Amino acid sequence: MKYHRVLVEAIVFALQQIFNENRQADKVIEQVLKSNKKWGSRDRAFIAENTYEIVRWWRLLKFVANINCVRVEEEALFWQIFAAWRVIQGDKLPEWAEFKTINAKEVLARNEEAKGIRKIRESVPDWIDAIGEQELGENWEAELHAMNFQAPVVLRTNTLKTNKLDLKKSFREIGIETETLPSVQDALVLPKRANVFSTELFKKGLFEVQDAGSQLIAEYLDVQAGMRVIDACAGAGGKTLHLATLMQNKGRVIAMDVEDYKLQELQRRAKRNGIGNVEIKLIEAKTIKRLKESADRLLLDVPCSGLGVLRRNPDAKWKLKKDFLEKIKQTQAEIITNYSKMLKHGGKMVYATCSILPSESEEQVQKFITQNPEYQLIEEKRTSPAKDGFDGFYMALIERK
């Protein structure tokens, strides 16, 4: 494989930004790709894919490159990590000065050694490996392995404007193939990655990019047209838009969050989608109290560790800390206890996480139900990276008696 120095330099720069400046991988890659308009699609794909994969396999690559420091700061070491990655992919390295210290045989030998140590082979911090095994037991290894594969691009059809089969046909007409997912009503999957955001189909609001597991959550809430629905942790609104669509743009969806900029982005997305029944509301001191017993349906997609979506956010496993996990569990308990008061008697709510850990999911719901007997668990569901190929989501449907 022929390497172009400027592309490798871009990857090294991106890795430094992610690991040394603690920036989000997707934001860094977006910035890097915009920095040179002369790069073609193959160049951009080379930068993005190699950066993401090196981030994903960071611990393994440090091991095979024999880099023992906890924090990599020297630029030369980033070049060595890139070289180690390409060696274990079967490439012959160019004779560049930055690669002179790399011994391909030693790299491959250490890669074989790593296969016997799960936390290195699967490239995960010690504490995540330990807590995963503690909570998931024999299922942990399969889930961990599955989360090291690149996540597919999944689209959700905006059924206010089109249907799945017509959207599939429209993509084919512009040279983009898609596949249906029988288990997810309005989903299309891209077998080959493509920049769908630049298409007129996206600009017209005919679809959103949303993982299959995430798409199941809004459906789980059992909304109907004309209802008053609250999405209490809306963020930028992927599930809010889905709820509004399922309600056929009738009734009212109140999208709430503590971050105003996310709600502003939600408004822009709603406009593109042709959605007019969404109201945004910034969560302030008395917001929850004022909305007491006002919702027919309530979605609590609570903040969590994100350990179910590591396929999409591989840098998260290096930035997540054990003490944050403990704090977020407390936040989850506070949200379900306090926000559930916005639900009417006879109404239903969904508590959801994008975590594979029971301590953030099933155990939180069980504790809440035990302490609040006027609520009853109707059913609960999980999506599994290992079994379904979806991101790892948990959802519980709860009724207020």
Any overview of this molecule?
S-adenosyl-L-methionine binds at residues 257, 301. GO terms for molecular function: RNA binding; RNA methyltransferase activity. It comes from Emticicia aquatilis. Keywords: Methyltransferase, RNA-binding, S-adenosyl-L-methionine, Transferase. The chain is of the alpha/beta class and 401 residues long. It contains 18 helices and eleven strands. The strands form two sheets. The protein has a seven-stranded mixed sheet with strand order 7-6-5-8-9-11-10, sandwiched between helices. A hairpin with a 6-residue loop joins strand 2 and strand 3. It starts with a helix and ends with a strand.
Short description:
The chain is an alpha/beta fold and 401 residues long. It has 18 helices and 11 strands. Helix 14 (260-273) links the parallel strand 6 and strand 7.
Number of strands: 11
SS-based class:
alpha/beta
Sum up the overall morphology in one term: globular
Q: Give helix and strand order, one letter per element, not per position.
A: HHHHHHHHHEHEEHEHEHEHEHEHHEHEE
Largest sheet: 7 strands, mixed
Strand order of the largest sheet: 7-6-5-8-9-11-10
Which stretches are poorly predicted, pLDDT < 50 over at least 5 residues? Answer: none
Report the radius of gyration as a whole number of Å: 23 Å
Mean pLDDT across the residues is 96
- Helix share of residues? 40-55%
Q: Give the helix tally.
A: 18
Strand content: 15-25%
Calculate the terminal CA-CA distance, rounded to whole Å.
64 Å
